[in-house]
């Protein structure tokens, strides 16, 4: 059977060669493949490597490293996330907000860099040692390479400092435009397919809003988003209040919190008004409710008004939910318990709230991962969706249906 179908397949190729190329010689060649659209991966929150170099005036514990000659990887280096050492790590990874310049900087004596610009390797694997937990765009990347893509030529990566919000990432959008044009030139002027995860989706929305229609028609084939946090997530409210343990890495949310709440990206990712109504309750206490339009009061009462300052810096990006005007494929998951709100049993916001759950992928609420469909009828380019049920926000990157969908779109 197998032989028969193989022969039949060969025959079709042979005949089509003769028909297509009647003047050519009768040599059996493989049918010309459709040209591959080069890929640029755009990672999400936590999806890029971060290296630091230290020359610190002081450290939080005596055993913390004070100075290093070279840059070393801190994200996602699981050794540095061990108990005790995590305090050293937090001080090296966290940002400090300046409410006058409206920008963040590292702790004194910490220099950072995001390695691997243009390369796919550092977004295929977040952990340079390629530990299993650090697998990121690996499954999609391997599938593409198996089908003819070449790392660093037709498959690129656009990592960024995910700790920051778009208000501080202006240079990233400029660099992404350059990388797009360079990749287009490197690949016989084939338009680009962008593949984004999580926060990468709204980052690309902003990027495309900034480009002219002519530029997009020339350089952009499509965007594919996986678990896109298009319109933020209620989980960001939870992280500001309690921190997050990053799933099953054996970490404590409370230990991760000081680093996490210092990130303007977390304030950017608070629920967007595109899919949250102003009077929707996000946090409740016996005394009062905090609605979407009262998040600023929540952060004041939480004793962390900086969160709202960082949000204000990014409001113009959050509030402009205009269509990107490119072909979109939104791949997402549902039916995983996803935080929708917090309910405190006491009026003390330092107590532990009960989490209210709704539908989503465990991190991003369904209404946000589906928000791409709000642009149907508002842009002429098509918007397709794939819902894979019961797959977690990071696991979905390795989901067979997702990988096959991308394969069908890109290769077959
Ligand atoms: C800025 O920060 C300083 C010091 O933390 C604080 O005293 C001041 O009230 C803040 N200003 C604004 C506008 O938030
Ligand atoms: C990727 O390409 C760039 C520029 O073409 C080059 O500088 C870099 O070393 C390459 N990286 C790898 C891993 O080949
Ligand atoms: C908070 O909102 C809920 C509806 O979401 C309402 O039933 C409740 O009475 C409100 N609580 C307070 C204290 O206003």
UniProtKB/TrEMBL annotation:
**Any coiled-coil regions, as ranges:** none
Q: What InterPro entries has UniProt attached to this entry?
A: AB_hydrolase_fold, LACT/PDAT_acylTrfase
Q: Which SUPFAM superfamilies match?
A: alpha/beta-Hydrolases
Q: What does the record give under GO molecular function?
A: O-acyltransferase activity
Record-linked Pfam families: LCAT
Q: Does the keyword Lipid metabolism apply?
A: no
- Annotated signal sequence is 1-24
Q: Which UniProt keywords apply?
A: Signal
> Its Gene Ontology biological processes?
lipid metabolic process
Recorded hits in PANTHER family, A to Z, give:
LECITHIN-CHOLESTEROL ACYLTRANSFERASE-RELATED
Protein's name in the database = Uncharacterized protein
């Amino acid at each position: 059977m197998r032989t028969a179908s193989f022969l039949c397949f060969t025959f079709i190729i042979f005949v089509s060669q003769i028909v297509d190329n009647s003047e050519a010689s009768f040599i059996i060649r493989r049918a010309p493949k459709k040209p591959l659209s080069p890929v640029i991966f755009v990672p999400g929150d936590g999806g890029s490597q971060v290296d630091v170099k230290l020359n610190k005036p002081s450290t939080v514990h005596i055993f913390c490293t004070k100075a290093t000659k070279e840059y070393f990887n801190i994200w996602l280096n699981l050794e540095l996330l061990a108990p005790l050492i995590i305090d050293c790590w937090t001080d090296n990874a966290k940002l400090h907000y300046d409410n006058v310049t409206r920008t963040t900087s590292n702790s004194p004596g910490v220099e950072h860099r995001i390695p691997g610009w243009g390369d796919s390797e550092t977004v295929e694997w977040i952990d340079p040692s390629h530990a299993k937990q650090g697998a990121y765009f690996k499954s999609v990347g391997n599938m593409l390479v198996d089908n003819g893509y070449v790392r660093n030529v037709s498959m690129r990566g656009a990592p960024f400092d995910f700790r920051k919000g778009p208000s501080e990432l202006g240079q990233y959008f400029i660099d992404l435009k350059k990388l797009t044009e360079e990749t287009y030139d490197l690949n016989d002027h084939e338009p680009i397919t962008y593949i984004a995860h999580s926060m990468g989706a709204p980052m690309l929305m902003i990027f495309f809003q900034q480009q002219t229609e002519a530029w997009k028609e020339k350089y952009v084939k499509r965007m594919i988003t996986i678990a896109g946090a298009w319109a933020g997530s209620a989980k960001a409210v939870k992280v500001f209040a309690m921190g997050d343990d990053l799933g099953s890495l054996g970490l404590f949310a409370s230990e991760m919190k000081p680093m996490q709440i210092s990130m303007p990206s977390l304030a950017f990712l608070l629920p967007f008004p595109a899919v949250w109504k102003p009077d929707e309750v996000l946090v409740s206490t016996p005394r009062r409710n905090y609605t979407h339009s009262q998040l600023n009061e929540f952060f004041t009462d939480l004793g962390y008004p900086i969160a709202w300052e960082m949000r204000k810096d990014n409001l113009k990006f959050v509030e402009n939910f205009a269509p990107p005007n490119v072909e979109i494929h939104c791949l997402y998951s549902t039916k995983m318990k996803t935080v929708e709100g917090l309910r405190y049993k006491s009026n003390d916001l330092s107590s532990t709230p009960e989490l209210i759950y709704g539908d989503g992928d465990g991190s991003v609420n369904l209404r946000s991962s589906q928000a791409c469909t709000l642009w149907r009828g508002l842009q002429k380019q098509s918007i397709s969706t794939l819902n894979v049920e019961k797959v977690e926000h990071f696991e979905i990157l390795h989901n067979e249906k997702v990988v096959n969908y991308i394969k069908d779109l890109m290769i077959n």
